[in-house]
Description:
Elements: H1 6-14, E1 25-33, H2 37-47, E2 52-56, E3 60-64, E4 71-75, E5 87-91, H3 94-103, E6 107-114, E7 119-125, E8 131-137
Parallel strand pairs: 1-4, 5-8
Antiparallel strand pairs: 1-5, 2-3, 3-4, 6-7, 7-8
Amino acid sequence: MFDTSARAREDRRAGPTTRSSAMRVTEIIADLHVTDLEAAKGFYTDYLGLTAEEFNLGWVARYTSPRSGINIQLMTRDATAPEDPVISVRVDDIDAAYAQAQERGYEIVHPLTTEEWGVTRFFVRAPDGNILNVVQHRD
Length: 139
């Protein structure tokens, strides 16, 4: 008989790998590269309605829809890393995520770093070449 429990559905979605994940992804945010934050801001706030500015560091800013919670980050150039990410992946355990990336042999593009703006993060290159900013916020 086919098991339709929530756990079974989750196991099937996880794919054929048998490794258990020590980390949990809590959010994924697109990082769009723009040449001018202020010029781009108008399009995303006025046209798309992402009116809540969660933060703006001058080189990266996040805008969110107050109604849906959908958000996007606009980035000119990462301030401390050698390359720019395409997405930011928020996790609940940055140390576990970093250890797991190393164990799997993924290229670490930017080492585990606690940044002055209140996050701990690292960049990892996915096998397809995309750079991911894996991040945990201090609460």
